[in-house]
Amino acid sequence: MFPDGSPLTVAMEEEEYTAISMDVEESPPPPITPRDPPKIQRLEESVVNRIAAGEVIQRPVSAVKELVENSLDADSTSISVTVKDGGLKLIQVSDDGHGIRREDLPILCERHTTSKLSKYEDLFSLSSMGFRGEALASMTYVAHVTVTTITKGQIHGHRVSYRDGVMEHEPKACAAVKGTQIMVENLFYNMIARRKTLQNSADDYGKIVDLLSRMAIHHNNVSFSCRKHGAVKADVHSVVSSSRLDSIRSVYGVSVAKNLIKVEVSSGESSGCAFDMEGFVSNSNYVSKKTILVLFINDRLVECSALKRAIEIVYAATLPKASKPFVYMSINLPREHVDINIHPTKKEVSLLNQEIMIEIIQSEVEQKLRNTNDTRTFQEQKVEYIQSTLKSSRSDTPVSPLPSGQKTPKVPVHKMVRTDSSDPAGRLHAFLQPKPNNLPDEVSSLSAVRSSIRQRRNPKETADLSSVQQLLSGVDSCCHPGLLETVRNCTYVGMADDVFALVQYQTHLYLANVVNLSKELMYQQTLRRFAHFNAIQLSDPAPLSELILLALQEEDLDPENDEKDHLKERIAEMNTELLKEQVEMLEEYFSVFIDSDGNLSRLPVILDQYTPDMDRVPEFLLCLGNDVEWEDERACFQGVSAAIGNFYAMHPPLLPNPSGDGVRFYTKTSEKSPQENPALGGNVEMESVLDQDLLSDAENAWAQREWSIQHVLFPSMRLFLKPPASMASNGTFVKVASLEKLYKIFERC
Ligand code: ADP
Ligand code: MG
Q1: What is the CATH number of the domain that holds 92?
Q2: Atom 11, ligand 1: which residue's CA is nearest?
């Protein structure tokens, strides 16, 4: 039986409570003589039922949801829905399920009559959608309900109408096809206010179509249709299909289905919460202004705003187009971990360890999004997510980069690829810096993503200037497919020197010029984010003219020549004037903000989590003034983007690299105090000491750059860079070794 204190009872009490408190509020100003307490009376049962019905059936789409769930519970393989006037006039749901017994019809629409639950404990082992026995009853309190049904082996069916929970007449024999048909007419006929509100707003048909679309992709063993009354064409029409992707294609269209990546998590108990998740998420080619999250938890269609937000954050941080994702996700977890009984329409559920679950799902989506190269990538591996042993658990990829002699049946050992572009295990860092804690990389990188996303503002609508589009198509058409493949799948090993990184792609080792690569990436991203930048606010706005002058002085090979100073000042002035004329354009399209006093105060964010080297601001401004062709729109955008690209590129810091020989730069000479060496008498001896402050500045700058190369540049390149063909021959990529050749050498030794 239903337990005392169930949420339904609570909800009803709340309604009563609200009614009473409103009474008090509406009474005239406080009487001078104390008023007698109002008399408490028992509400008529029909009023109670109507109030409760209004909770369960909030609008036409909630009635459709309940009816379709009943059909699913009845093992139907085909469900069709017809709607008139947004559901207010008529909702008709027909199925081919097991039907309802003749003898059950009299109590079918009474409250708390159900075939799915008989004792409270059943709630924890329940696999049906419904269990409260309320939906049909509720509908009869706020609409006219007619049921036609036939069970197996019967020669005819029965039809009966209900009002306020009871049959209006004895069931009548009638011809019927397999299953049940339920008609709900004149919804809310007796709730004037609700009907009026619903009539005034956009009707529910769109919501109903949306609901059935969602149901159809999850229950792909059932065919669904939904049409307006009298319409020939159905607005949802799904057929039974064995593949989830096919059902998404048939309901949401090819444009969605072709841009999906499979996501999968199988999380063991050790991660803190056991659950399985499988689904599809849109890739970087998918464009939409609205997030669609189709979420099923233990086969129940639910909403989870926390998960939705978490996924949106990943997309906003990873994709430049500001596209919202399409996500279908089915999560299964032990029934005892879900409380399905917290919401009157079961729309929301409460989950045990929700935060951990969301974090794990977020990591999986982020990782797949970063790794995906195109829609062909469906052969993803299951992620066995065990928090504390993430790295060492990968028994298939030994940490040692050298061949261990162990053989796998398929891949010859000299062709075996032992690194994974998504796994830190193959990086030099894994050997150099033992992590202080066991947090998996994904988790820490996510918090960085989160903090960067907080700064995001509402982007302006895209300025679809055709010249920017042309520049972007130029980028596309110059792209080298082989290099693209390499960039997307390579593993960063470490820095070989100040400019070249070692990367591994399949069995080859390359030297990759990070300055060239980052310059090109920043240029491309500037074009892609055109007019959509977030801003970096400079703490000290800097005067343009001084900065430009500084740049001119740095460029000058003969700084002692005073005659030139005057000239430099003139050039700086002219450049400043020139830039001042362009402030609006620079601000609107590039988020480079110069205030009315001629101070530079804002710069664009080109890649999240990355700020350029501020020592290069003077050079950047000079370059804007000197190199940009301002008259021609396309050339101008290209010039500014290239200047930004060069400024943001990951150049070696201006301070020499203190590791190795560079350390000489940080030594200074100072007098040695005489008492240290009394043998020398009054002679002053000089000694070399390290300038610790400068040294630590330099160490920081270099460490910061290397972090950015590994954590920002390479992941972003994988996702966004379209390497131009010129990079194959201009020394940006140089192959230094291949495992096959090394093997030949080893064999000879
Ligand atoms: P619940 O689904 O919570 O049991 P409902 O009021 O939705 O409560 O339905 C009451 C009962 O009516 C169900 O338990 C089920 O036995 C029966 N029923 C409702 N709709 C159908 C249907 N389409 N086919 C077969 N049986 C149904
Ligand atoms: Mg039900």
Answers
A1: 3.30.565.10
A2: 114
The C-alpha atoms of residue 487 and residue 509 are separated, in whole angstroms, by 12
Q: Which residues contact 259 (CB under 8 A, 6 or more apart)?
A: 282, 283, 285, 286, 326, 375
- Which alpha helices (H) appear in 75-179, and where do they start and end? 135-142
Write the DSSP assignment of 268-290 as a string of letters: -GGGTS-EEEEEEEE-TT---SS
d(CA 183, CA 147): 6
Closest atom, ligand 1, to C-alpha of 95: 23
Residue with the smallest CA separation from ligand 1 atom 23 is: 71
Give the pLDDT confidence of 156-184 residue by residue, as tens digits: 999 999 999 999 999 999 998 899 999 99
Is residue 69 included in any domain, yes or no? yes
The 10s digit of each residue's pLDDT in 301-353 is 988 888 888 898 888 877 766 678 999 999 998 877 776 655 555 566 666 67
Higher-pLDDT residue of 317 and 685 is: 317
Q: Does one domain contain both 231 and 339?
A: no
Give this prediction's pTM.
Answer: 0.51
How many separate domains does the chain show? 2
Query: For ligand 1, is residue 116 a contact (CB within 6 Å)?
Result: yes
Phi-psi region of 637 (alpha: psi -120 to 50; beta: other; left: phi over 0): alpha
Q: Give 686-747 as a DSSP string.
A: EEEEE-HHHHHHHHHHHHHHHHHIIIIIHHHHHHH---BGGGGTSSSEEEEEEHHHHHHHHH
Same domain, 70 and 213: yes
Does ligand 1 lie within 6 Å of residue 178's CB atom? no
520 burial level (CB within 10 Å; 0-12, 13-18, 19+): buried
* pLDDT score for 394: 35
How much distance in Å is there from the Cα of 243 to the middle of ligand 1?
A: 29
Rounded to the nearest whole angstrom, what is the distance from the C-alpha of residue 278 to the centroid of ligand 2? 26
Domain extent at residue 270: 259-372
Cα 331 to averaged position of ligand 2 atoms, centre (Å): 22
**Which ligand 1 atom is nearest residue 97's CA?**
24
Which ligand lies nearest the alpha carbon of 147? 1
Atom of ligand 1 nearest to the CA of 134: 6
Looking at 202, 237, 272, which one is the last position of a domain? 237
Cβ of 371 below 6 Å from ligand 1? no
Examine the domain organization and report whether 62 and 122 are in the same domain.
yes
Query: How far does Cα 727 stand from its chain's mean position?
Result: 32
Which letter, b or e, does each residue of 629-643 get, where b requires 16 or more Cβ atoms within 10 Å of its Cβ?
ebeeeeebbbbbbbb
The verdict on residue 731 lying in a domain is no
Q: Is residue 600 part of a domain?
A: no
- Does 711 sit in the ligand 1 pocket, CB within 6 Å? no
Q: Do 152 and 278 belong to one domain?
A: no
Quick one: 169 and 277 in the same domain?
A: no
CA angle, 510 then 514 then 519, to 5°: 135
Whole-number Å distance, alpha carbon 106 to ligand 1 midpoint, is 13
Residue 131 CA, closest ligand 1 atom number: 3
What is the Å distance from ligand 1's center to 67 Cα?
A: 8
Distance (Å) from CA 146 to ligand 2 centroid: 16
Output phi, psi for 579, to 5 deg: -70, -35
Residue nearest to atom 19 of ligand 1 (CA): 70
Give CA angle at 378 (309, 362), nearest 5°: 20
What are the tens digits of pLDDT across the range 241-261? 878 999 999 899 998 999 999
Q: Which of 372, 403, 428 is the last residue of a domain?
A: 372
Is residue 274 included in any domain, yes or no? yes
* Closest CA relative to residue 509, chosen from 736, 744, 245: 736
Closest to 61 measured CA to CA, from 205, 172, 194, 181: 205
How far, in Å, is the centroid of ligand 2 from the Cα of 69? Answer: 6
Residue nearest to atom 21 of ligand 1 (CA): 70
